[in-house]
Amino acid sequence: MSDAISSGDTIGGRRILVTGGAGFLGSHLCERLLNEGNEVICMDNYFTGSKRNIQHLMGNTSFELMRHDVTFPIYLEIDEIYNLACPASPIHYQHDPVQTTKTSVHGAINMLGLAKRTNAKIFQASTSEVYGDPKVHPQHESYWGHVNPIGFRSCYDEGKRCAETLFFDYRRQHNLRIKVGRIFNTYGPRMHPNDGRVVSNFIVQALTGEPITIYGKGDQTRSFCYCLDLIEAFVRIMGTDDSFTGPVNIGNPDEFTILQLAEKVIEMTNSSSKLVFKDLPSDDPTQRRPDITQAREKLGWEPKVKLEEGLGKTITYFEKTLSEGSFKAG
User: Fold this and answer.
1) What global pTM score does this model have?
2) 293 SS3 class
3) Active-site annotation holds for 215
4) Fewest CB within 10 A of the end CB: N or C in the chain?
């Protein structure tokens, strides 16, 4: 492991703000941080997050839930910020594209301003979408990307790219302690059944016996990282010394076609669902796989959970969720 990990830089006992804390990844992060002895403020406006995700944390005296939109300033006293607030699935971020861009850009400005005032260390949950439809494979952090600035996905792609710009400008101009992680496709329990992401789509369709929708021929590739592996990487990034900023890719380098994923889900759910092929959406990336060399070297991190194991846990979650009736945000 690299000496980027500071031996004296423990995370226990800190006051930590998690924006988007009631979301899929945010709720897992809140849980992890609480388990390590921190005081956690979970901030969410419940656009895609849900109180259901953090209900089990409510009795913890070190946990505070705050309904607030990150696009508006807030004044708190904190030691660290994990900025996860932003809808991450195409269905959700394209529902109100202007608000999506505001969440990424205004949200970053507000959280960076808070970090500046309190001298807090701040983590930005960026995305592999900054690479767009990449012409370099696998994607390394030095690659600048191939992004359409005016397409249907641009509100998310360019919003996240601008947020990274802001983070590094605040670093250069104000010497803020920033960390930037680029998240590749992730999945696991607490995903929203209707978020439109491929893993949740396929599992819900398979469990309900509906046709499984594949866009294009299904030969486009993705790399799927289990949520708890991802959270481990978040914590390790924040544990590095101040000289390490990232950006650093966080994802699973095991690459699968969408068709392979569909067939695996059908097999694991013993579903009778049939495959239905539809036209590929515009700007949909054809290849997506992270080069995680830097994460291995700087963080001593690589994903541990294989796709079949992670899918099993996710399928179990959706079986329970669907049996309880419709899932509603808020």
Assistant:
1) 0.90
2) helix
3) no
4) N
